[in-house]
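Workshop exercise sheet. Pairs work together: one partner reads the sequence aloud, the other fills in the structure field after running the prediction. Swap roles for the next sheet.
Pair: D.N. / O.F.
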Amino acid sequence: MSAPQPAPHPTRVSLDGRYARLEPLALNHAEDLFAAVNIPDATERFAYLPSYPFASVEALREWIVSQQDLADPIVFAVIDKTTGRAGGWQQMMRIEPKHGVIEIGYVYWGPAIARTRVATEALYLFARHIFEDLGYRRFEWKCNNRNEPSKTAALRFGFSLEGIFRQHMIVKGESRDTAWFSMLDSEWPSRRAGFERWLAPENFDAAGQQIDKLRFDAI
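Structure field:
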């Protein structure tokens, strides 16, 4: 193998799939995203996120404006192509082109897209872009070690648990142990095959329920 080469810094490009489209976060997403946040269980959904639910659409607009010129993180709105509405967001962060490492973080998938093909494809679109278009070597997922749903999701999506970083951060005034997951470029071919097999239209019945679970076979 030749020596690893630095990867390019990601840019604000749209990533299009069958069910989902990722668009660079913009003010035109504000109304849809506020609707996805302004829900009865918002506090619970934000429990392990670095911020609190947005109190108003104006506050969300202010956050969008604050993110638009940043090189890191880069936030993307997750669009459900069936409805055309933004149902959540996710970001590329801790971007290290020199080492070919990038992390997905601050993932908020609202109730309309969470646990659906849209959310799974949104993760897949990130991974495909990071490994294939940009040539990164390592894709990371980190979360509070108490966040069992996030840890379950990381494993489902083909990330491997590398360990627990004890007292890694202080978030919202509380000490956080961080669960550290990764996916490597050498693992991507099997992960891609598994995602594409699961996302295929024939893997869903007339009610939209999966026929086979998401799985990754060794290649």
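Discussion prompt: The beta strands are 15-16, 20-24, 74-80, 85-96, 101-109, 138-144, 160-171, 174-184. What would you look at next?
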